[in-house]
Amino acid sequence: MGSRRLAALAAIAFFISAPANGQQPALTARQSEALTAYDRALGDFKAILSKRRRQIEAKEPLPNLPGQALYLARVAVISTYKDLTDVMPSRIGRPNKFEIPPAYLDADIEPLVDEYGKLFDIMEAPPPGAQNSPTPVKDVVDLAVAIARAKGLAPEHAETAGRISLGLFFAETNGKQNVRNARSNTYMGSFQTGPSEDRNGRRKWEKIKSDVAALDPALSARDDKEEARARGTDHRFNHWTNVRNGLMNAHADLFREIPGIVKTLPDPIDQMKLFQLIQIVPTPTRSALRSGDLLNYRVSSPTVMKYLRNNSIFAFGQADRARSSASYREIFAAMWLFNRKFERAMAQYAEIKPR
Prior knowledge:
The chain is mainly α.
C-alpha cells in the first residue's frame, strides 16, 4: 500500500474518532456530579438574593438573622465551584475584582456578589441614635497608638499597633462604623463586640486611663466627651467607645509583644492576620506565639477548626473542609478572603499617616 494511501486512511480514522467541531468530551461521573452541585448552589444563591431584595423593597418583616441564609448560600457557591474546578481545571477563569482566587469564584457572577454586599449594607445599617464619628479611621489609629504607648511601647511600635488595629476594623466591618450584624444577635458595633466583651474592655480602659491622659491629654479629653455622649446608651453604638473597649478587651495586652511579632512576621498583612486570629481563636493563637515557632505551630482541635471555618478559613470546598489540622503558616495562607480588607486598611493608614 502506497504512502499516500496510508496517510489518507490515517486522516479518515482521525476524523471518525475526533469529537465534532465544538463538541466537548463527555463528562466523567465526578465532573457531572460537581457541575450539578454548582448549578444547584448558584440557583439557590440567586433565589435567596432575590427573596431578600423583594422583602426589603416591600418593607416586609425579615426573619431573625436575615443574613445567615445569604451567607450560607454564598459559601455553598464558592465551595461547589472549588469542587468543580478541582475536577475540571479548565473551568478556572479570569481574575475577579474581589481578588478571590479564580479557582474559587467564577468572575461571571460578580454582579451577584455585589448584590450580596448591598443587601448586607441594608440589613446591617446602624440603628437610630447610633453615635457616629466624623473621623472613624483616625479614631481607630489614635486609640490603638495611645493604648500601646500606655502599655509601654516605643512610638514606632505603637504606630504598628495603630496600623494593625485599623486592619481589624476593616476585617470586622469593612471599615463601617456602628453596624449591626445580620448573622448574630450578640456581636455589634464598629468592632463587633458582645455586651460582656464591651463591659470588660471598658473596665480595662479605666485602669489605664490616667496613663493615657499623661501621654496624650487631647485624646483623654476626647474620651471624656465621648463617654458623656454615650451615657445611658449601648456603648457599642458609639464608634469611639466601641473601638476603645474592643481593643482593650482582646488586643491591648498583646500590644506588648509587637516588637517580637514584627521580627517574626515582617509583612504588615501577616501582622493583621495574627491579630484577627486573636479575635477568632485567641487561646491557640496565644499558645502559638509562646511556642517560639509561630508559623509551624499546629492546631488540631475540632472546635478550633470549626471556628476557623465559621470565619471563612478552610471553609470552601471538600478538600479544605476535610482538613483536621493546620499549621499557622497554612492558616495565614488560607486567610485570602481577608487580604483585600487588609490592603484597604493599609491604604487608609497611608492617607492619615503620611511618611
